[in-house]
Write a structure and sequence with these properties.
It is built from twelve helices and 14 strands. The chain is an alpha/beta fold. The longest helix has 36 residues.
């Protein structure tokens, strides 16, 4: 049979056992405690709806005057967002995108030819393979190691570099480990002489200050850097479809010129959200504070419950973000744990292998879950682990 579609789409589209069981449980009317919820608009947050809707009603949105880098007023609003965090980022170094995923797409186009390689962390969010394949780029992984805290395995990273390596991706803080890049790690990363792509969407959600941490790579550096963020996490508004890239370091002006060519081909960022951006960012602090309270409350509960003497489970150290990792007894695989918890306790969790954890057995829990559901779900997990140990 003649192949019709691109090999970029040659992925296994069959549902996995967990999604099959979840669909069956919901068809049968089960009430599921979903500890995977990552959509802030469905997490019971109180949004300033009037202000957000008013911001989108700007009459200037009725006219189309595209700028491939994004409207200057919107880029200045992003610059002000960084200024409030003590970082000087000129609007001239900012380029708007429709999302962080699109930002990755632009950067892969800019930096890599078909067959070239991008280094990405492991464990991390399971999207890089798909984004890279769409650009005919290959992904190679470098590991993060845990010894009470997470850190980059630089020896393994160096071994992963080949003549076709074009960039190193860092997720700061990482999803799902919640670990930030440290200053010593950043200094060492710059010595590899490769562009650094820094995904900083969760940067505002640290649980405690840490002077050894690098919150953003938007400042001066010895490496060509591209820092990415956007409204999806900063304002808890994924549906607004606006993100950005901040370029810095050597050759950033030439990089921005290339990105402008790419952006001009698509012109995907909608005009209404660009005009609304200053007011959306101004309103975002109220949503951020709710998320911070929610995630801290759930993390404290998780840490307390899993640290009780005799507990068969352990919460791994997390510095920020919206997720936590619970280590469970290795009497079952992660997939078996997730299936048993859903089948017998009506609790939905994500197994660690979804994020390319190298070892068993870890469960990934969303700290964005409403606290009552999180507490009950955790109680059922710990009860199940206690019965099994």
């Amino acid at each position: 049979m003649t192949r019709v579609f691109s090999s970029r789409l040659q992925w296994d589209s069959q549902p996995n056992p967990l999604s099959i069981l979840l669909a069956e449980k919901r068809r049968n009317g089960a009430v599921i405690l979903d500890l995977t919820e990552s959509n802030p608009t469905r997490a019971g947050l109180d949004y300033p709806g009037g202000e957000l809707l008013a911001a989108l009603a700007d009459s200037r949105a009725l006219f189309y005057d595209p700028d491939p880098r994004g409207l200057l007023s919107a880029r200045e609003a992003v610059a002000e967002y960084y200024a409030q965090r003590g970082v000087d980022v000129p609007a001239s170094r900012i380029l708007l995108t429709a999302s962080t995923s699109e930002a990755y797409s632009y950067l892969f186009k800019l930096l890599a030819n078909p067959g070239d390689e991008i280094l990405v962390p492991r464990p991390s969010y399971p999207l890089f393979d798909y984004l890279a394949a769409m650009e005919s780029v290959c992904v190679r992984q470098y590991p993060l190691r845990y010894d009470g805290v997470w850190h980059i395995d630089f020896e393994a990273l160096a071994d992963a570099i080949t003549p076709r390596t074009r960039a190193i991706v860092v997720v700061n803080p990482n999803n799902p480990t919640g670990s930030y890049l440290k200053r010593a790690e950043w200094a060492r990363l710059q010595t590899f002489g490769l562009p650094i792509l820094s995904d900083e969407v969760f940067s505002d959600f640290a649980f405690a200050p840490d002077p050894t941490r690098v919150a953003t790579l938007t400042g001066t550096s010895d490496a060509l850097t591209f820092s990415m963020s956007g409204l999806s996490k900063i304002a808890g508004l994924p549906q607004m479809k606006l993100g950005w890239i901040v370029a810095g370091g050597p050759d950033h002006a030439a990089a921005l010129e290339g990105l402008e060519w790419i952006a001009d081909t698509y012109l995907s960022v909608a005009t209404p959200v660009q005009w609304a951006l200053p007011r959306i960012l101004a309103a975002s602090e109220a949503v951020q504070e709710q998320i911070r309270r929610r995630t801290r409350t759930n993390l404290e509960h998780l840490s307390e419950r899993s640290s009780v003497a005799g507990s068969p489970c352990r919460c791994l150290h997390v510095e920020g973000g919206w997720y936590a990792i619970l280590e469970v007894p290795r009497i079952r695989s992660e997939e078996e744990w997730a299936l048993v918890l859903l089948a017998e306790s009506d609790v939905l969790v994500q197994p660690g292998f979804f994020y390319d954890f190298e070892a068993e057995a870890f469960l990934v829990l969303s700290l964005l879950t409403p606290p009552a559901a999180f507490a009950e779900g955790l109680s059922r997990i710990l009860d199940a682990a206690g019965r099994s140990s």
